Amino acid sequence: MADDTPCTTEDGRYLLINGRRWRATDPMLPEEVGRRLRRHLMAARREVGVALRAADEGAERRARRRVHAAKTALGERGTPWWEQSDEERRERWEAGLATLDEGDGA
């Protein structure tokens, strides 16, 4: 059976998937925070699909902003997590969760 675990760069900053580098999630994220952010991310990705099938450009833009907010809070976009202090990292995910929990980010 093949191992589906993605490879990472030696420094752990990137995942290597099908020859592409993708920024890894901030390893400092508490498990519960990461779980909540991934749930928001998956919901927003589903919203993108619904909007695309409905050809609703406004809904698509809102959903894509939610995807961006979740990925930024996870540390996968924006200032790289390895360039942020512990406090900046915590502020990033707390602000992202607050925005996404309130239904904003759109």
TrEMBL record:
Disordered, as annotated region: 69-89
UniProt protein name: Biopolymer transporter Tol
Organism field: Streptomyces bohaiensis
